[in-house]
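Standup notes, protein team

Yesterday: finished cleaning the Serratia oryzae set.
Today: UPF0370 protein BMI79_14055 structure.
Blockers: none.

Input for UPF0370 protein BMI79_14055:
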Amino acid sequence: MHWLADYWWVILVILVGIVLNGIKELRRLDHKKFMANKPELPPHRDNNAKWDDEEDWPKKK
């Protein structure tokens, strides 16, 4: 871990580069164009009632 004390600035430069590239890519994103051409979502189907038809609990007497 002694190398971390010596080269902490390299890790800092890499993290700053990642953040700056992320900001640059987010600026290029056109959210209005995406919202105009947004694909339709399929209708929601609730299959929770179908997967467990049998009762696992013991029957009460």
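Follow-up from PR in the comments: The mean pLDDT is 82.
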